[in-house]
């Protein structure tokens, strides 16, 4: 999130200590660069491992044997990417009009013709979302799934009665018709995770077997 030039709402003295998400990301990026002098290999391999929605994945969701997995590793690794993801992620900057807070309530974000709140998000590559993970063992491949992860970050939102029990201050917005704004958390995409689920067929067979055993005992 970004208050351009640090003077959104004319409340720099109040907002500055809280900072903004885009400033936080920029600061984080700069700190990674500074640390990269000590761990350059790790920095390049991890930070540059993001993918692109415009570049399709090769046979996403399909099972690959060991030889094909090695071929995929060679295809996707290069001088800047020294590792690949089982569930590839895409780094995106978004400018939403609103979002859901921790209470599941949709909140309207502050914006005008000059200012937009920006967020960096990590989303599942569209080709792999809700499909089996890559590089999985054959026995677990169909039980795996690439799922979207979410986390919460600060945002400047339109004040509503639901915020009255929170300790965030409210800010009058210039030219907003008397509306006030406050800080809240909103949900953002934060990564793509590989999850493995139990085999439903085997579980159903085990339940059926236990029921039959119980009947035989009777």
TrEMBL record:
The record's Gene Ontology cellular component field reads: extracellular region
- State the residue spans of region: Disordered: 199-218
Record's superkingdom? Eukaryota
Q: Name one GO biological process term.
A: innate immune response
Report the SUPFAM superfamilies cross-referenced here. Answer: Cystine-knot cytokines
Cleaved signal peptide residues: 1-20
Q: Which UniProt keywords apply?
A: Signal
Q: Which InterPro entries match?
A: Cystine-knot_cytokine, Spz/Toll_ligand-like
The biased composition feature labelled Basic residues covers: 199-210
Gene Ontology MF terms: growth factor activity; Toll binding
Q: What is this protein called?
A: Spaetzle domain-containing protein
Where does this protein come from, organism-wise? Rhamnusium bicolor
Top-down, what is the taxonomic lineage of the species of origin?
A: Eukaryota, Metazoa, Ecdysozoa, Arthropoda, Hexapoda
């Amino acid at each position: 999130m970004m208050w351009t030039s640090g003077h959104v709402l004319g409340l720099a003295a109040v907002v500055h200590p809280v900072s903004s998400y885009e400033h936080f990301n920029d600061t984080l990026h700069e700190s990674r660069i500074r640390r990269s002098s000590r761990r350059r290999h790790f920095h390049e391999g991890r930070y540059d491992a993001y993918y692109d929605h415009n570049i399709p994945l090769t046979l996403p969701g399909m099972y690959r044997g060991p030889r094909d997995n090695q071929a995929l590793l060679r295809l996707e690794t290069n001088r800047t990417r020294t590792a690949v993801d089982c569930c590839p992620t895409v780094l995106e900057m978004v400018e939403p009009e609103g979002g859901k807070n921790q209470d599941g309530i949709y909140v309207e974000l502050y914006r005008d013709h000059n200012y937009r709140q920006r967020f960096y998000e990590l989303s599942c590559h569209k080709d792999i979302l809700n499909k089996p993970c890559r590089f999985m063992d054959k026995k677990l491949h169909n039980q795996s799934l690439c799922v979207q992860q979410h986390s919460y970050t600060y945002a400047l939102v339109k004040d509503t009665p639901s915020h009255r029990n929170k300790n965030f201050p409210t800010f009058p917005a210039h030219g907003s018709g008397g509306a006030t704004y406050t800080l809240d958390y909103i949900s953002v995409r934060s990564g793509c995770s590989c999850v493995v689920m139990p085999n439903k067929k085997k579980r159903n067979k085990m339940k059926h077997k236990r029921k039959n055993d119980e009947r035989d005992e009777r």
